[in-house]
Amino acid sequence: MLDDIQTLSNAALKDLATAISVPVYDRSAITPGIVHIGLGNFHRAHQAWYLHRLMQQGDAMDWGIIGAGVRAGDEAQRKRLAAQDYLTTLIELDPTGRSAEVTGAMIGFVPVEEDNAALIAQMADPAIRIVALTVTEGGYYIDPVTKAFDSAHPDMAHDAAHPERPRTAFGAMIAALRIRRDASIGAFTGQSCDNLQGNGAILRQTLVSLARMSDPELADWIDAQCTFPDSMVDCIVPATGPKELELVKSFGIEDAAPVTHENYRQWVIEDRFCAGRPDWDKAGATFTDDVHAFEAMKIRILNGGHQLIADAGEVLSVEFIAGCMAHPLIGDYFRKVAGTEIALQVDAVPGMTPETYVSLIDRRFSNPEIVDTVRRVAFDGSSRQTGFILPTLRDALAKGDPVEGLALSQAIWARMCEGTRQDGSAIAPNDPIWDSLNTAAKAARTRPETWLGQRALYGDLADNAVFRDSFVRWLALIWDEGVEAALTAYLKG
């Protein structure tokens, strides 16, 4: 650790070590163009980084990012970032060596308020041309099986009944669009950056459906005037904890909210922006009319692969993702399922076959510098399993392709949701619907079919005899002999 540590701020940039890349542009000249809701580590390591790189080239100075949040806890993040002039230290964790850079594309953060009045006013500003979101896969108020809009959710009912004081990001976006329409300002682009297949279409569905509950004419205007480009985002970004707060000091920086990330990024975007956009392609992003194939490859192999190994790691008391890949069984389980089951349901994209992508993800997951916890990756399985694993399983069953490893993944998830590890320690609740998952998992210990009876998750998959019989057999083996025995049997099969 360096003796001379600078507290991160605009004024301190000139005093940082020369090896640390810092903004070369005049941050005081940046004007806002984007509001980003859900401003966490991933956004700062990914989308904000691309914009920062454009600004380093002297471009996109009218596209500054204003952060936003709709949860009470987001206020603490706002205060941390405001105290350091909204700068972020990014630390790249490459096995060949670590490096740091300070990014400055973010220039503000809207106060977090219960009625979201400040957020609505910011999004109604004519300067804002893109409203982007990272609100997690489960944050779009859709049914996990049918993908239909969940109009009965209390949050949606509230925002429909009280459109002038919404509690959700989507209600706030609709309120801002109403102001823009009435003032003839024009629409903005809604840009989802979450790991959802067809994330732009899902954002459109949520926004238009919610607006229709209170103002059908506004819903029609939003549907006609706004654009919602699909996109695929990719970069492994661990959570920030005490280790990361100490790590940033080794670069001579005191940063209250540093971000660590792997040495890989990808951003594939549909080029549909009703009010203009930055030239992100000049910083390495890809604009294409066929995002779907890129989405499917990444979501099914990377995000689906994460679920395969994280649940097994949790049950077997493996703390980190890289540790799962080094495990004598879990790593090979990922390689076999991804290579022989998931890859069969994924099309090639320009420059990448599914098999090559599996090898790429193998290397990325195995990076020992990325201290990514199993608990973080396993969080919200009710959204991630239904979004990342079950669509692949459905496709495989329809084609008569192998599903043994995918069925085993569901048995391991059920075992994890029982709430104990094999060493007897407790697994803390890790899902928004943990109570119902836990109840079903405990019942499934003696009656495995009970787990598949969760129709809100599995729909008619529970009626498929091939899947059901495989699942029942795997879960029975897990409870009789343990996860290691099931993994061993699969790998030898």
Automatic annotation (TrEMBL):
Q: Does the keyword Ion transport apply?
A: no
Q: Domain named Mannitol dehydrogenase N-terminal: which ranges?
A: 33-282
Q: Give the record's keywords alphabetically.
A: Oxidoreductase
Q: Which InterPro entries match?
A: 6-PGluconate_DH-like_C_sf, 6PGD_dom2, Mannitol_DH, Mannitol_DH/Oxidoreductase, Mannitol_DH_C, Mannitol_DH_N, NAD(P)-bd_dom_sf
Going by the record, the broad EC class of this enzyme is oxidoreductase
PANTHER family associated with the record = MANNITOL DEHYDROGENASE 2-RELATED, MANNITOL DEHYDROGENASE DSF1-RELATED
Stated name of the protein: Mannitol dehydrogenase family protein
Q: What's the source species for this entry? A: Tateyamaria armeniaca
